[in-house]
């Protein structure tokens, strides 16, 4: 069986995930959980998302970047011409390293395509409406994904908003 693909995303009540190439909030509590959940797993990201990380991969996670730029060369990063190629390569890395899943980290264009391919969604629902966001997450179709876990997380000292962390699993397809 293929290594599962999981989307990791923080999304506002009105589906905003970004503004001006960054996240429109600070969620230290969520970032700690995100790091713990993704360390050692191969990550698939778009080039703009890599840029939002300062142009380098997040430590401790192999990265495959979806880009049209064949000349992109960043230490610790592999490139792929399509999302499907990136997922395939990330699955190979996961199989070789024993990682239990591949993570998709965005951005908006990558999420829009990946939501049809993902087995699981790890969603931090940010308890806010963001009026000036410019990057959106697609709606989660309840006929495709079932919420299997949800916890409320009050805003910590270094968090802009309270959140709800939810895990969604792709429903079994009818036989």
What can you tell me about this protein's structure?
This protein is of the alpha/beta class. The chain has one domain (3-168): 3-Layer(aba) Sandwich (Dihydrofolate Reductase, subunit A), CATH 3.40.430.10. The chain has four helices and ten strands, in the order E-E-H-E-H-E-E-H-E-H-E-E-E-E. An eight-stranded mixed beta sheet has the order 5-4-3-6-1-7-10-9, sandwiched between helices. Strand 3 (43-46), helix 2 and strand 4 (63-66) form a beta-alpha-beta unit. It is globular, with a radius of gyration of 16 Å. The chain starts with a strand and ends in a 5-residue tail after the last strand. It holds the Pfam family DHFR_1.
Produce the secondary structure layout.
Elements: E1 5-12, E2 16-18, H1 28-38, E3 43-46, H2 47-52, E4 63-66, E5 77-80, H3 83-97, E6 102-104, H4 108-114, E7 120-126, E8 135-136, E9 145-153, E10 163-170
Which terms would index this structure?
eight-stranded mixed β-sheet; 175 residues; NADP; Dihydrofolate Reductase, subunit A; NADP binding
Compact overview of the structure:
It catalyses: (6S)-5,6,7,8-tetrahydrofolate + NADP(+) = 7,8-dihydrofolate + NADPH + H(+). 22% of the residues lie in helices and 30% in strands. The chain is an alpha/beta fold and 175 residues long.
What is the fourth-level CATH superfamily? Dihydrofolate Reductase, subunit A
| H/E element order | EEHEHEEHEHEEEE
| CATH class label | Alpha Beta
| Rg calculated over all Cα atoms | 16 Å
β-sheet strand percentage? 25-35%
Main beta-sheet annotation: 8 strands, mixed
Multimer state: single chain
Helix content: 10-25%
Task: Tell me, rounded to a whole number, the average pLDDT.
Answer: 95
Categorize the overall geometry.
globular
Secondary structure tally: strands: 10
CATH T-level topology: Dihydrofolate Reductase, subunit A
Structural class: alpha/beta
By CATH, the architecture is named 3-Layer(aba) Sandwich
Number of helices: 4
């Amino acid at each position: 069986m293929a290594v599962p693909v999981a989307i990791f995303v923080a999304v506002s009540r009105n589906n905003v995930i970004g503004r001006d190439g960054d996240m429109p909030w600070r969620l230290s509590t969520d970032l700690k959980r995100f790091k713990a959940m993704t360390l050692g797993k191969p990550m698939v990201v778009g080039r703009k998302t890599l840029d939002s990380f300062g142009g380098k991969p997040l430590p401790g996670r192999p990265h495959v970047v979806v880009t049209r730029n064949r000349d992109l060369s960043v230490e610790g990063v592999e490139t792929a011409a399509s999302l499907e190629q990136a997922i395939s390569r990330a699955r190979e890395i996961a199989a070789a390293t024993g990682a239990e899943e591949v993570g998709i980290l965005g951005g908006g264009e990558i999420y829009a395509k990946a939501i049809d391919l993902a087995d699981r969604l790890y969603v931090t629902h940010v308890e806010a409406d963001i009026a000036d966001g410019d990057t959106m997450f697609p709606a989660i179709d309840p006929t495709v994904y079932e919420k299997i876990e949800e916890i409320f997380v009050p805003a910590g000292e270094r968090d802009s908003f309270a959140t709800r962390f939810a895990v969604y699993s792709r429903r079994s397809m009818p036989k």
